[in-house]
Known about the structure:
Keywords: Actin-binding, Coiled coil, Muscle protein
GO molecular function: actin binding
Family: Belongs to the tropomyosin family.
Number of strands: 0
Oligomer: single chain
Organism: Buteo japonicus
Protein name: Tropomyosin 1
Shape: rod-shaped
Radius of gyration: 45 Å
Amino acid sequence: MDAIKKKMQMLKLDKENALDRAEQAEADKKAAEERSKQLEDELVALQKKLKSTEDELDKYSESLKDAQEKLELADKKATDVSYPHPFHHHPVQKPHTLCAGQPG
């Protein structure tokens, strides 16, 4: 009879331990699901921020491209003014001199 009582007591302890482990596993699962949800929310926020940053980069890249084109055009105009084309003839004008007897 004592052996049966001991066996019953051991089975009861095993059952309690199994229930405790199941409760702990359930709590761990719930914590993991909450952490997963939190990380998913963070990921969505970071993806939105990345998209916004990429859009901003595109905008500034386009502005930079426009500014570089304007600068190149201004440089070209400045170069054309500074260094006239060698085959383009500009007549040299002589200074007007007043001579006696000429109207002027």
